[in-house]
Design a protein that fits this description.
- Helices cover 76% and strands 0% of the residues.
- Helix 2 crosses helix 3, helix 2 crosses helix 4 and helix 8 crosses helix 10.
- It has two domains: 95 residues, RNA polymerase sigma factor, region 2, helix turn helix motif (Rna Polymerase Sigma Factor, Chain: A), CATH 1.10.1740.10; 61 residues, Arc Repressor Mutant, subunit A, CATH 1.10.10.10.
- It has 193 residues and is mainly alpha-helical.
- The chain is globular and about 65 Å long.
Amino acid sequence: MSHTAEIVARSSREAERVPLTLDDVYSEHTEFIWKTLHRMGFRLPVIEDVFQEVFVVVLRRLGSFDGRSATTTWLFGICLRVARGYRRRAHFRRERIVADVDDATRAVATEATPEEELERRESEMLLFEILDQLDIEQRAVFVMFEFDGLSCQEIAEMIGVAVGTVHSRLHRARESFAQAAKRYRAAEARRRP
């Protein structure tokens, strides 16, 4: 659902004093939650568990949602807190990045040589490793802007912060990304004879 459509839906709910339900959240915001968690670095099969955790929190907190902010802003905050908690757990820190099922299917569907496919996968894993080093809020903004092509204004409206905050997070994320990439290039140069 677009941000404008959400404002209209929220306004009509407020006018009717109809509280937000779990069915509303699920039917209208599943894609937003899934994309948000993916932007924060979660991939299959872990994303499914985190997605369920988000809905458990949504169910518990539904009564506290007063409609003063956009539903996406409220959901982004829940996703952020759940993601931070999940990342703090030891098993996430030991998690190894593996290809998603979609990646394997895409590899079969392309006409790339095995060497080209291996190079693409290694580059993708390196990208994920670098992104995993970013602060989760910075990472989300970075991915929304750089990969999803959203404007800073769209991101600000979606997550409920000022545009200046988005610019600041994006700036810090770009700096962190560049530093991490530089470290990886230096480490790679040391490994080569």
